[in-house]
Amino acid sequence: MKASAVYAIADRLAPTLRRQWLTAVAAIQDQLSIAILAEAVLRGGNSAPLNKVINSFPVQLRGAAATVARIFEDSAQQAEVEIFKRLRMGGRFDIVNPKAVDVAARQGAQLVREVTESTRDAIRAVISRAITDGIPPREAAKFIRPLVGLTERQALAVVNYRTSLLGAGGSPTTVQAAAERYAAKLQRQRAVTIARTETVRASSAGQQAAWDSARADGLLPSNTLKEWQAAEDERLCPICSALDGQKVPLNDAFQSSNGALDGPPAHQQCRCRTSLVFPKRETA
After folding, report:
1. Under a CB-based contact definition with an 8 Å cutoff, are residues 26 and 76 in contact?
2. For 263, which of 104, 105, 204, 226 could close a Cys bridge (C-beta 3.0–4.6 Å)?
3. Angle at CA 189, nearest 5°, toward 71 and 122?
4. pLDDT at position 283 over 70
5. Closest by Cα among 187, 211, 197 to 110
């Protein structure tokens, strides 16, 4: 079975997920007024208004969560079609069952949970840094807002960049503008990373769900394998290179330097795929 038939769904919907992510981040930033952030700095990050806004992130990310769930379901259905083509038989099995739908929902919920927590951690880290550096609350609030949505590492990178520009004699207005441009660049990069990684994760999980259903229904031989397929080009990393060509039973995990994996992604922006390997028919 050609893995590209399933993973094309991820490729097609990645731009949608990227836009939904950026829209959600912009909505949260709009809700975080200078007053809310300044109070949060004064309170050392322990602020009810700030927490209320961050806790609304799941609402803003509903569209993104729905897209991830859709990718899971569409990929499962596509894998189902490919199985029947490979077996040269008609029919279908019910991959869209309550269990599969629940798994699809969890795929989206996991993304929302991880994004919300990483955003909360990043804001806390920047507030802590602002307090340590003695930055007045309202001044700190102005440079914190554009950082919402970044990881802790990215947010602190912007803070360090801002500090270096000020240390070089840059005016506060010029430095703030430069820091905001840098933050916006990192936001776009994170949007791409999330979109590429989570769409592949959802496609891989959907495909695996279809394989599990087919095997449970007796459509796939018990000794059917799945094979890891890496993208063979100059961007191939050591992790994926070591996984390339590895074959394991459907119920087993691939073994990598990042631990056991049911399927891609092996890391952020992983471009790997998996496909079925049917047992060879014995000849007389």
Report:
1. no
2. 204
3. 100
4. no
5. 197
